[in-house]
Amino acid sequence: PSGVVVGFWDRDRLTQVFSNLLSNAIRYSPAGGEILVSLENLESAAHVSIRDQGLGINPEALRHLFDQSYRVPVTAGQVRGLGLGLYITRQIIEAHGGHIWLDEPGAGTRVRFALPRGASP
User: Fold this and answer.
1) How confident is the model at residue 103 (pLDDT cuts 50, 70, 90)?
2) Are 93 and 20 in contact (CB under 8 A)?
3) Would you put residue 115 in left (φ > 0), alpha (ψ -120 to 50) or beta?
4) Distance of alpha carbon 64 from alpha carbon 70, whole angstroms
5) Which of 10, 29, 32, 121 could form a disulfide with 52 if both were Cys (CB 3.0 to 4.6 A apart)?
6) Radius of gyration of the chain (CA)
7) Rounded Cα gap, residues 111 and 90, in angstroms
8) pLDDT (tens digit, 9 = 90+) per residue, 7-50?
């Protein structure tokens, strides 16, 4: 956006969200793969998108992706983790009154989230 994006958000928790989503994008992308981060400043919300060029996510796994301790079976043995990152990320986004989702599965992954803008609740 050309201007400042303003919202009533917890900086530390959003740092945790970005850290988790970006580290996932790095872990699941091939070496030298590109990760694109974008921000849209809409009237009522800020929309963030993080797209990688990794393996993508199996459509069957999508409905469980934000569940506590869920790991995508295809990559669970290849990449270390406890399956808590996306669960915690969703909790943080929802605690801010926002929501998080994945675009169509396929080659690469695009995680998007929206946070409401405006004054404190």
Assistant:
1) confident
2) no
3) beta
4) 7
5) 29
6) 15
7) 11
8) 899 999 999 999 999 998 888 787 878 999 999 999 899 999 99
Tokens of 84: 């808590």
User: Residue 2 is encoded by which pair of tokens?
Assistant: 């050309």
Angle at which helices 11-27 and 85-95 pack, to 10 degrees?
A: 150
pTM of the full structure: 0.80
> What would the two tokens of residue 8 be?
């009533």
DSSP letter assigned to residue 8? -
User: Do β-strands 45-51 and 110-116 pair in parallel, antiparallel, or remain unpaired?
Assistant: antiparallel
Percent of the chain with pLDDT over 70: 76
Nearest to 20 by CA among 61, 60, 64, 65: 65
